[in-house]
Amino acid sequence: MTDSLHLLWARLDLNDLNNGDDDPRVGSSRNGSSGGTLSTTSSTKSSSAASLGATFIPVLIYAAVCLLLFIYLRPRFPRVYSPRSMPSLRTPHLPSPALPTGWINWIKPFFQIPDTFVLNHGSIDGFFFLRYLKVLRNTFFVGMCISWPILFPVHITGGNGNKQLDALTIGNIKDSNRMFAHVAVAWMYFGFVLFMIARECVYYVNIRQAYLSSPHFSSRISSRTVLFSCVPKQYLDEARLRKLYGDSVKRVWIPRTSKVLAKLIKEREQTALRLETAEIELIRRANIARNKQLRKAPQPLQSIVEPVSPVSSSSSSICDVPSPASYRTAPDFDHHDPSKNQSSSRVDEAELARRVTEVLSGGEFRSSVTELSQFQDVPQLLHEKLEDPEYVHPYGLNPDLPDVRGSVAAQWIRSQDRPHHRPLGNYFRRVDTIRWCRSRLKELNTEIFKLRRQLRRGDGSVLSAAFLEFDTQESAQAAHQVVAHHRPLQLAPRIIGIRPDEIVWSALRMKWLERIVRRFAILGLVTAAIIFWSVPSAFIGIISNITFLAKNVPFLKWITSLPKPIVGFLQGFVPAIALSFWMSLVPAMLRVCAVQAGIPSLVLVELFVQNAYFGFQVVQVFLITTLTSAASAALMSILKNPVSAKDLLAQNLPKASNFYLSYILVQCLAVGATSTLHVFDFCRHFVFSKVNQIPRKRFNVWYNLRPPRWGGIFPVFSNMAVIALSYTCIAPFILLFACLGMAFVHVIYRYNILYVFDSELDSKGLFYPQALLHIIVGLYMAEICMVGLFALKFAFGPMFLMLVFFVFTGLVHFSLSEAIAPLLQNLPQTLSLEAELQEEEKAAAEARKQAAAEDGNAGGTANDYYDTEQAFGEEEMSAPEDEDDEMDHAPNPSTRAIEGASSMGSAFKDLLKKMTKSKLDSEAEKSGLNKILAKLGFAGGEGESDGQPGFFKKWMHPEIYDDFIALRKKIPDNDLADLQGEEDHPMSNYWPPELWQPKPTLWIPRDDAKVSRQEVAHTKKVTPITDNGTSLDVKGFVLVDVEAAPFPRQRLVH
């Protein structure tokens, strides 16, 4: 055995690492989604191990640096690296548990957090994404255990003379009869993969049913609401819909809208934001000018906060620069000669102030107003006292200051320096931005009010959709599953569980015919994009073969003079960067296409992106660039000897796996380590937010977490699975990199899902079964590749066997898709009864057990002596059997000549079975196999002495041991978000936003020059505004307290 191992090691020839000429790598790479390709000529020399090392070392160093930076920055910047642990950002959800701030002591508590925390307090999509990575990791590990002991000896001793990593591929096999080993491995491993996919689909269905039927989720408004699209005009009536679905309908929304109203709402938002920006700019300019003036004439300012008397002494020009004495907020009455009436008026005002203070301190308001009516000018004075006096003229400044527009800011800047713009409707003539926006907002508010009143009366266009909220989740599911209309495509498609913030309202305006036309057009566009996207991808694949280009393109010959490590580095990363940038445009393009196709939900948009982007990944990253690069590498040899094309392809195509080792390494290590740094979020929070002087944008940056776009994340790893499965039998060494890469990425994404990513957009895990079915594409690709290689090697026996398994894979794929499709969108009606049945069975079993115990104790000593089950003559009194029963036990007519022949045959069979079973049991007992199986859970014994199933038995039967009732225990209800009060929230109603969206609230910084006070006093007449929680520093920069923002911060559960 030792000699054979030394022989295998010697045949690898791993010492010859620097004697190769070219890099024999073909493939692709992308930053999160795609990649480039590399290949080699048919030279027998190889530098695969050196090239892999040239890629592995810098990637490993880069990943280590990223992880060290992450460990250093994590406790210092919690908003970037652990925002989900901050309660203010997670209300009303439970925040993630805070981790220790040390360098290493946080690792153990992090791994102690169960994955069910993500399920209960994050999203089911995040939970199943982590499970998807674990499933891929375990699948690749099992593939190593199956393929390595069989295929590595077969490949190394193949006889083709390949060196280094090329000796581990199927290209090193010369004898076609050895290909039967690959067929055996493929049947075993691919069969295991199919079982794993089917098992995970069953597990997903069970846990989805447990999650959706839990009391916390079933009480949500979205779980009881069904969207009916393409509703005929006859059924756009609330009474008719209630009659159709019965008394279980609780609320009905038939959305009405108007394009004019939607445009006005959008214009009001834009105008309000322009007004806010202009006011902030005015405040900053005025304070900068004021600070310059004070530096020229520094004198102490007096800030007196007493109520300002409405008495004014003299007027002054607003263009004159006031003296420091004019900043006083309390007037000096010594220079006046007050009369008797003025003295009594002051007494009245003092008494009024005392009474208003009592009213505001907790007295009964209505009765107090009656008492205050004896004072003169009670309404005006009461209004001024009830609001903050700082927002009442003169805003805490000189009482002689006239209340004209811009009077406060005009003390420091000229009117020409105020913010201005030139609107198109005013023929590009200059207007004051603040005054124009206020006037325009006033007009828009009036127009919006009138249009909304018309829509409430029944005017406007009615969308061909309806939202029906039912009293229970069971009623909603029944309405969702039933065929509602007798015509096709009417009252369909139906969507249940859709949240108001997920609706694409533009899609609901489409009729059924328009939706069909758009869908076909978009599918044709995506198919054409996949085809024509291949042109630049193929060009990148050709460029990736630097050695071939350097030898055949004159101005690139200088590349051959570069050191080999640099050439290998360029071959590994330059095509990856180019194709990564090219492929990064795909997900955004697909989202636009999905919206234009009439998909009415953002979740369904992401599901569309997942399927389409996976097609892009497989075609562009795995097929096009690989084939074009391999063709460019072997082009010259094929032209010289066209007859050898078959042998060249059979020898060079397996070498493509050498690049995919680097591809998976870069994708998992480099990209995963980069995602821990969150460079963009770090710059956004601590660089861009310091430059941005708009408090609203600062609040949005602080409060809004980055959502994971699962439609663009799942296909990346699904494509990695396709690549790894395709090369399982061709180059099984790739499974090691795939397994380690998935394990590393799992840890990275586990931290990001627990502490960084947002979890508001949730598809209830629908990305997971689609990703599982995408893995079967990898099996198809692997089987097709092996059939092609067998054909090139003229191994027709293995080729036929792989074709048989290819058909078997298709049958399993079709059957599995058909079986789980109805359970992905619907909840079965038996869920409510299944729990009751199990409770009844459990109670019956307990009753039988208790009755048996009582009967055993009731007999006493006599019962111990006599056999209570023995019959004493009762059989003589039993009724005779029917003739039919006698005929059932009659002997077979064919054996009538031999009386008792049938009973003798059955007895012989039973004896043979018993002897065989006892013999096998005795042999298994002697060999110790029973103990091993019992410990593993496959058989009874020590592993199941307590009646509990073993691990493997539970793993083999998820439909029994992981049903929805058992999995529901993982979803507690005591620490989940409270849903009370959300039913009446405007965002919980299924009306278009233009029907309920309130006036935008403006947020401007408070300043020492009191410009913000006047802006608040004037602007609040047209839209809400405040200057609390934000201010200006000495240099004129905006300081923001995000906790005091006037915007809603509570996340609705819906």
Structural description of this entry:
The protein is mainly alpha-helical. It is built from 40 helices and twelve strands. The strands form five sheets. The protein has a four-stranded antiparallel β-sheet. It has a two-stranded antiparallel sheet with strand order 3-6. Strands 4-5 form a two-stranded antiparallel ribbon. β9 (1002-1003), α40 and β10 form a beta-alpha-beta unit. α7 packs antiparallel against α29, α21 packs across α22 (602-640) and α22 (602-640) packs parallel to α29. The relative contact order is 0.15. The model is unreliable at 4-45, 300-350, 356-386, 858-879, 881-889, 893-897 and 940-946 (pLDDT under 50).
Span between N and C termini?
66 Å
What are the segments in which pLDDT stays under 50 over at least 5 consecutive residues? 4-45, 300-350, 356-386, 858-879, 881-889, 893-897, 940-946
Helix content: 55-70%
Order of the strands making up the biggest sheet: 2-7-1-8
Radius of gyration (Å):
39 Å
Structural class: mainly alpha
Mean pLDDT: 78
User: What is the number of helical segments per DSSP (H or I, 4+ residues)?
Assistant: 40
Q: What is the approximate shape?
A: globular
Largest sheet: 4 strands, antiparallel
**Beta strand %:** under 5%
Work out the number of β strands.
12
